[in-house]
From TrEMBL:
Keyword annotations from UniProtKB, A to Z: Hydrolase, Nucleus
Location relative to the cell: Nucleus
Protein name: Histone deacetylase 10
Domain Histone deacetylase: 26-320
Species, as recorded: Channa argus
GO molecular function terms listed in the Swiss-Prot or TrEMBL record: deacetylase activity; hydrolase activity
Keyword Hydrolase: yes
Higher taxonomy: Eukaryota, Metazoa, Chordata, Craniata, Vertebrata
Main location: nucleus
PANTHER family per the UniProt record, alphabetical: HISTONE DEACETYLASE HDAC1-RELATED (PTHR10625), POLYAMINE DEACETYLASE HDAC10 (PTHR10625:SF43)
Basic and acidic residues composition-biased segments: 381-395
Amino acid sequence: MGTALIYDEEMTKYKLLWVDPACKIEVPERLTVSHEALVETGMADRCISIPVREATDADILLVHSEEYLEGVKTTPYMTLEELQEFTQQYGDVYFHPNIYHCAKLAIGASLQLVDSVMTGKVRNGMALVRPPGHHSMRSAASGFCVFNNVAIAARYAKQQYGVQRVLIVDWDIHHGQGVQYCFEDDPSVLYFSWHRYEHQDFWPQLRESDFDSVGKMKGAGFNVNVPWNKVKMHNSDYLSVFFHVLLPVAYEFSPDLVMVCAGFDSAIGDPEGEMCATPDIFAHLTHLLMNLAGGKVCAVLEGGYNLTSLAQSVCQTVQTLLGDPAPRPANLGSPCKSALESLQCVRSAHRQYWTCLKHAADLPTSDISTKRIKLKEEKEKMFKGEQDESTEEKVWTQPPKRVTPPIRTAVVLPDGVTCPDQCKRFSSSADPDPLVVNKLRENYLKDGDDSNALATLSSLIGLADKMEKNEICSGLVLVRDVSMAMMCVVQHAATALSNRVLVVCVGDGKVQNYCSQDGKTLVVQFSSRKSEEEESRYYIPVCLKKGCSDVPGFIHSILGLLLPMGYEYDPGLVVLAQMPDSGICDSVWQQLIGLLQGLAQGHILVLMKEDGRACVGPTASSLLGNAAPSLGQLHASLPEDVEAVESLRHRLEGYWKLLQTTAAD
Ligand SMILES: NCCCNCCCCCC(=O)CS
Ligand SMILES: [Zn+2]
């Protein structure tokens, strides 16, 4: 299934008609540069174009009051003075004779997107709209927003398609207070937002934007606010919040639909956000959401005011929705102290609502909530001073071109096992290099003349080489001895290939401690038995009471341990081995493959035992980029597993900074 793109140039036909410094950044070019970038990169043609429609009164009344709607309806006939007067009653927004029409199209675009996804016409999609929506409230416009596009779309999805649970992820740099107010007492809509806050000093300067606004009444726990109390937040800060707050909660919530308030003022170069996260980060944020809700992801444009980073970020998002592998998450560092403080505060505030956070630490000793008041007083005192408008020009390298290999998934299967469609059967066509053959014979083959084991191993090596050359994206190999095959491909990768190799081993089994201490390989093994090998920086045995068969425990160890380390390690190749009788079920296996594909540009090599034929279909489906089936709402992990993962995290966070979930005192 494809990716919808909804855009109509009519939404460029309104603009600011008078002088207002706060509003001058919201210009029609925001939409034109975004759409043109998608056209120039050829991505618009790869999408399924869906036309906009005009929202009806009933659509708008799902969220807004009649009196507000009646008021906005009069604006097309107003004179300039009347428009200015009408605008005065709201903050940081402007009206225009054509903005009501465009606001109805922005809603209609969002509803068309929901229809296309919910009817299965497409898998996911993006709506390029203006005016944005997430600040507008039941009876008020705010922050360039007239109607709340995403809030209306979420209510529409529930009403029209009986959607039980909607996750709204708001990665715009402003707090979508309009969305929070709309759903704060509603447990069927989980609203997650991070936003520049600076201890309530940044617009819209609301006390209720802080981490302790968790929702009200039966909606308690379903509103998650992550305040950024400093600017210059980077990719590592964003990813650590996904790994340690959003994703665990989202998997526990198990939404039927994911809506994204896709604002790109959180990217580097934006005058509002003043953050440092690079446009490619949106490929990873999007990818990490695509295995939720069976892949039903609807992204709707909100903010984004630097026309260069906006266009690049939109392209990164759409390219990932199209299924292209994400770029390498290069040089991730440690989250900054302020981000870790916020992370700790949010997890602490929510531990009573989510089992995945129940073990979260207390509020940091430097309880940042009191800073809010003190800082406010200081600001008042010193406010007399100049507001430094130091907007030095930010520069960043353009995201790397993401070339999709000609072959998406190659498979090496024993005769008699049919090749899954869209996969390509692979065998090392050229006679294997005699050197390789000898090495295989002496190191890996018990009886040296086992010809088809030799053929399989040399195919395996050939596959790894083609992945390194980006001729093949991912591979699946059925082997007789998984351990031996793993050793073989890791040895080959460690010597012949230039890249680091992440080895993920699912299930018991002796994993030769071939993790060279030089960091060429990072081995993470999930099993139910204590590993006899010593744990180290590059060999991490994760012992789970019921191994991979306990879904919550396994998912939490993937999200909270494996992904943070994997992203920080940034391998060129991922080897994923399913040991015999690992106990892992297909849907969890598919989640694991889907999530790991965010690494190594999707170069993941899966090894399974020959008799694992039943798993070939599901594995191939995930390797081809299809969304994994939803796991359903997750219950609590076993206490032993929580304990194991937490102690492992504490031991390793000195090495792997993305494992941190608290600000060191
Ligand atoms: N009044 C001093 C400056 C105010 N700047 C904030 C303007 C609203 C931004 C809203 C937005 O970006 C929507 S995503
Ligand atoms: Zn914004």
